[in-house]
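If you are new to this repository, start here. Below is one unmodified record pulled from the training split, so you can see the exact layout before writing a loader.
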Amino acid sequence: MTSLRLSNDTLSDLPKHITRPTYDRAALTAGILHIGLGNFHRAHQSWYLHRLMQQGEAQDWAIIGAGVRDYDAAMRARLKAQDCLTTLIALSPDTTSAEVVGSMIDYLPIEADNGALIAAMARPEIRIVSMTVTEGGYYRDPVSGAFDDTHPDILHDIANPSTPRTVFGAIIAALALRRTAGVGPFSVQSCDNLQGNGDVTRQTVLGLARRSDPELASWIAAQCTFPNSMVDCIVPATGPAEIALAAEMGVADQAPVTHEPYRQWVIEDNFCAGRPDWDKVGATFTNQVHAYETMKIRILNAGHQVIANAGELLSCETIADCMLDPDIRAMFEKVETQEIAPYVSPVPGITADAYVALIADRFSNPAIHDTTRRVAFDGSSRHAGFILPILRDALAARGPVDGLALVEALWARMCAGLREDGTEIEANDPNWPQLQQAAQAARAAPEIWLAQSEYYGDLAQETQFADRFCHWHALIWSKGTREALRSYTAQI
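And here is the target side for that same chain:
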């Protein structure tokens, strides 16, 4: 099939099996500015808004994209070249479908002082500033969760509030301009996988503002809102195979997004300047966001970490490959049902055990080429954020922690940098040099790994956990990952 270059001019000429916008994109006006235009945002929030626009609504809520890192410039160039359109490709085990999403109308230039970003957020029509900046991007202490005001980027923004480096400094600078101009506040909406992501965002914004302009911080605290939300859709990274798949379907898209045919978005209805009616296209507005996000983060996000390091060590390329491995899957099911689900309350419509079964099915989708490497990335944030809180709850309840200790031992072994077939595991964490040094030293003395208090806090003193960690760590190094998995799952 001949593929057409994606643009406004070619939308009407795309193959009929590709759904495309039915609304007039030229008539859209901005209402949302989103920072961090990765694949997840384009498959999730942008899609919900697109579907609402398809119904003739939310025409004044279009998205302006933005970024604050040098690498965002490449994505901007790709998307601007195709009029900020994105082809979404839904992958089921037996079907593939595509649609072009047009809810984004511009992408700001990437600037060191974030001048264009600040100016755009100061515009009165921007009523929501949303973001996907990764779980580790909120300047928090990994153990306590408190705002980290010692980070060099934060120190820069405190000293230079008009030329900030961070997303949060830019938000504060824009709000200062809005207050001076009498424009009013906007809502700040995190779409990252964090427990209480709105509360965490509020902590970071106010923590930084109080150090540079306490009066402005008081105004932000009184005027702005930070709605919590739970976001869910498995969205792999894009590479040559995904670009080729889009071309095979008839569209030449340099930044297509593949995704599973499942989405969920649960949102606290706390928007100070209005919002789109996302609930009309499947989102849920509720005051029980915490229960939904606990279920998702503990069973799905923690579940990813349960299997990813074992998968890396055993050379499983994708998460679906991990679930095909009988030893990894057996470990996943036992840890989830015995050591995670007991600390997850049901939500309307589904129990924790039923959600475990749903996640196992989603992880097993062979059409989703979600690499084990992507899921294992940034373990220093993801283990601290997803696994260790469950471990602490289990210890407090005097519940079993053997599987969780095994998960941590597998992470320590993975960070040593070699798979069991002898191939190298390339740097896969912002703190990789320190992690690798600790992992290699821990081979002879496992307690060295747990002594990383920036992640584990006082867990090294919890003998129930520390003893089992050392047991599994020694077994993995002496007899291998597979033997450790089988030993754990054989236990009654």
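Two things worth knowing about this chain: The longest strand covers residues 30-35. The chain has 21 helices and 14 strands.
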